[in-house]
Specification:
Elements lengths: L4 E4 L5 H17 L12 H9 L3 E6 L2 E10 L9 E2 L8 E8 L8 H15 L4 E6 L4 H9 L3 E8 L2 E9 L3
Parallel strand pairs: 5-6
Antiparallel strand pairs: 1-2, 2-3, 3-5, 4-7, 6-8, 7-8
């Protein structure tokens, strides 16, 4: 996993984390995606993640290159799925994945997900669930590359989202 460190974001890093997420929001817009174009996520969302102990950063050479919320617990939107999850036990949820624009094409998002897998296993959680918009090509590429399994559709604020799960230990 290179010399990358995956750790909880600090309150003092809110501005950096938010700037990375803003870059991702703008990239989604340029790509023609509808995801993240309605005021979510916003700076308060990221602040809440960090305060709740769910905001994580990927750091290389003392530079924050990516941000994600990793939540260990029940995701209410995942309680109903048009389809079926692979497992019924505990799981980690990954939301708000964003990488710094300076790291584009360097495998940062892949490394972030590898770290999430390690963290999940360390916490005794053997499954990771994520969802993404139908038009988020970069995230759809990552879930395919990392062998996540398409499980069906979930709904966020009435909008359908593609839901995926990866079982880490069978």
């Amino acid at each position: 996993m290179n010399n990358s460190i995956f750790r909880l974001a600090r309150e003092s890093e809110l501005a950096i984390a938010w700037a990375i997420v803003q870059d991702a929001i703008e990239q989604r817009r340029r790509d023609g995606s509808q995801q993240w174009q309605n005021g979510y996520p916003n700076e308060q969302t990221i602040k809440n993640d960090i305060a709740a102990g769910n905001g994580y950063v990927l750091v290389e050479d003392e530079e924050i290159l990516a941000y994600a919320a990793v939540i260990f617990g029940v995701e209410p939107a995942y309680l109903e799925i048009e389809g079926a999850w692979l497992t019924s036990g505990s799981y980690a949820v990954v939301h708000r994945v964003a990488r710094a624009s300076v790291s584009k094409g360097k495998g940062i998002a892949t490394r972030l997900f590898e770290h999430v897998e390690t963290l999940s296993l360390e916490k005794g959680v053997n499954s990771i669930r994520i969802d993404t918009n139908f038009d988020n090509a970069p995230m759809l590429h990552i879930v395919d590359k990392l062998n996540y399994v398409y499980c069906g559709e979930i709904y966020y604020a009435g909008a359908p989202r593609k839901a995926y799960e990866k079982v880490l230990v069978k």
